[in-house]
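# nightly structure sweep
# worker-07 picked up a monomer target from the shared queue
# config: single-sequence mode, recycle default, output format = structure tokens
# input follows
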Amino acid sequence: MEYHLVLEKYKNLCYSSLGKEYLDSLHPYNVDAQQELSYVAELCDFVRANGYPSSDAFIDVRHILQKVADGLLVDGEEFILLLRFLIGVKSLKEIFKTQRLLTLQNSVTNLVLKIGNYDEIIERIKQVIDENGKIKDSASLLLKNIRNEYAETLREIRKRVERFISQHQNLLQEATYTIKNDRYVLPIKANERGRLKGIVHGSSSSGSTLYFEPEELIPLNDKLRILTEEEAKEVARILRELTSKVFDRLQSLLGDIEVLKRLDGLFAKTRYVIEKGAQIIIPGGNYLKLSKAKHPLIPEDKVVPIDIELPTDKLGIVITGPNTGGKTVSLKTIALSIILARSGFPVLAGESSRIPDYDVYVDIGDSQNILENLSTFSGHIVNIVRALKLADENSIVLIDELGSGTDPYEGSAIALGIIEELIARRIKFIVTTHLTPVKLYSMSHDKLITASMEFDPETLSPKYRILMNIPGASHAFEIAQKYGLDESILQRAKEHLDEEHVRIDELIKSLNKHISELEERKRELENTLREYQRQKREFEEKYKLLKIKKMEEFDRELREVYKDIQKAKRDLQITLQSKNTESEQLIKKRLKEIEGEVKHIEEVQEKLEKVFYETALSEEEKTIGVGDYVKLIDGTAVGKVVDVKGSKVIVDFNGIKLEVKPEKLKRVATQTVVTSGSSQSKTEITNEKRIPTKVYSSPLTKNEIDVRGMTVEEAVEKIDEFIDQLLMSDFTTGYIIHGKGTGKLATGIWSYLRHDKRIKNYRFGRPDEGGVGVTVIEI
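# output follows
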């Protein structure tokens, strides 16, 4: 199965040993696959929006915490590593704090936000230890005094050394000093020892030089040693105090590391999804369908995806085909996909894949075991017996080369007996075989599906793809001929085949060839369709972005117009205060200009609403004809289009007929009974004369507000209060959900935001934030 090798692929994507340990611990019987894969899906959205977090939050500091637990002193360099870790954790929490998933109880965001606050430890480490892991002079007053005194003593020693050298230069081997046994000494000539008072601390290898401590340096060297010891004691005290702070939070740290261990593993799975194109498939039900499934260990440029399907009304699949055709790899791919999904891992398969929540029992490969005196056949039987003993209706049994390793006649009988036992006990299974009786049995049984490995008869080479509902030929004669077996031998061999066998084999080969050609054509068409769909999505996305860009351009234009109006107001005030006799004419001129600006605003506002309408509704909703049921986008009443009159349509609302522009309507599928809703006012909302009031409200628990269904006035009132709460919260970003509709509500909200000085910036949401149905504000 090579499961451990597959697991290494995921582990290599972890930040540290923490995640690797977590992934090693997962298997189908100890993990909630649904929760695990839901977390991975959430992190995929997180990474696409924010990128991957720093690796510092996942540094393995357990060896440091073990020292703390054992009562040992943590040194400066270890504290710097711990500091990096704690700052990384803090940064990770801050990134997740901005996520809109904050309100979901069962989410990765809440998992991360439950991690403890270690600001006190972070600040204390920063105060005490420098970036090189050394204790700062400012760590304590005593340490500062000791180091100042040490520096002063050192200066005095060097001063006296220089004086000694200048006075006794003729007695020295060199005009310098050195350090022996942590004491400052000078190299003097051995034959001059009697002329000086002091202590000899050693000699050179030749004996010609003595390392001499002059009498006047002895008390200073003694003082230096005492200060060094005092410094070491104070440093140890400071480190002990810092270690004690960590000890106080030890249990919290160890618990949070378990969360980070899991998070590291989850991010590795997320990388696997994003970088490898894997799918998140939550196992469930009893329907197995693998679409474009790939073996994780085969390189991307060589792997051939397989498609296989075992519906709920079928019990087994029998796969046939030539050797080296890919049967064994296909079985391993199926087994790994199920086991990985059940263990909470994303799998290399297509979006339409479905994986049942089954226990998996496999017999794949050569089971020969010399130590246990088992032949290949015996080894297979031992594995199959174990599978039959443990498997039930919630299991799937995968057997490679069923009935092989012994006499084909007896092997076929045993294989059929095993298949019948599996069918009788309603155990799902997939087996591969070369045996013709097994092949024929599967073709005639209504609970079994026959499949084969695709083979190119022209090149005599396998294509490694599975053909469903088609039996496979072994192609033994063709392969033997390809590899050089003499033609005369092959002819004699064919004489030993009965006519019925030859006829069936030729029929299967012909069918295989025809199906293979159809499959190739199908793949070409699917590739063409995928390319068309990709181009269509790309075009629609670009078209939508262009429309949103146009709307934002209109908004910028409105802002400029408002600035011009404000300037015009100021000019009028200046003119009114002027005594110039021509002021009346000037006032009339400016009033005319303002009227033009207001008209321009109305035109831009109308364009904005029109573009919003085109962006918000699908083509199907905008296509309206006689007989269609429609409703006003701003209302809820449903009517029927009875006629078209010029650029308008006649709509019958329960006996009341109205002429309406098509862009004010939205086509609906069926008529529904609804209550009428209020229309939104066209009054432009500004906050120029709004008197601020202080509102005392509960803390903001989520950074979004839903104003759908409200009038502009109602929405603005709620948004105003929401912005106040946002300012008093830890959030810097807010989400206003106004829906799409005609765009009047969004336009009114933008008109309000345009004048609100509390708002730093605003924009439509990205696709993952709700698109043009959401306005994102920054305060």
